Amino acid sequence: MVTFKARENVKAMFTSDYTVDYKVTLSKIPVGTVLFDVYATESPTKTCKKLIGTITTTSTITPSLFGDEQLFFQHPDFHYDLDMHPEWTNYTPVWHTFGSKDAKSQEVKCPFAK
Fold first, then answer.
1. What is d(CA 98, CA 109) in angstroms, rounded to the nearest whole number?
2. Between the CA of residue 11 and those of 7, 25, 35, 111, what are the distances in Å?
3. 64 lies in a domain?
């Protein structure tokens, strides 16, 4: 399992009331800024996270039509992992948008999922 933890100095750049377009904020991040620390754990049941790297800007951040409309990172839905490892269910965060408390029966596990 991989966890991305945003650096506090980067998080502080964004407004909590969303009054500033995030693309404007992103464009102000200097080259060489560490955005995230990247941690790995063997499984959701393990508590020991090991720092395995960082995500750092190597150029200015600019919006692009390709990035907005075509760039896509596909991964299987996590419920397939839960089918193979049901012991992970109690360690899996679920957004209860439709009232159910069962992680595998959620219509939407993430508020940003389509």
1. 10
2. 6, 10, 9, 19
3. no
Same domain, yes or no: 32 and 80: no
CB contact at 8 A, 51 and 38 = yes
Tokens 């200015």, residue? Answer: 60
CB 33 within 8 A of CB 60: no
Tell me, yes or no, whether 15 and 54 share the same domain.
Answer: yes
Range of the domain at 87: 74-114
User: Is residue 54 domain-shared with residue 24, that is, in the same domain?
Assistant: yes
Distance CA 33, CA 11 (A): 12
Our separate counts of H helices and E strands in the chain read: 4, 3
Q: Under a CB-based contact definition with an 8 Å cutoff, are residues 29 and 57 in contact?
A: yes
Within a domain: 27? yes
The residue ranking higher by pLDDT, 20 or 7, is 7
| Tens-place pLDDT, residues 67-105 | 888 888 887 787 788 889 888 888 777 665 555 555 555
Contacts of 107 (CB under 8 A, 6+ apart): 97, 98, 100
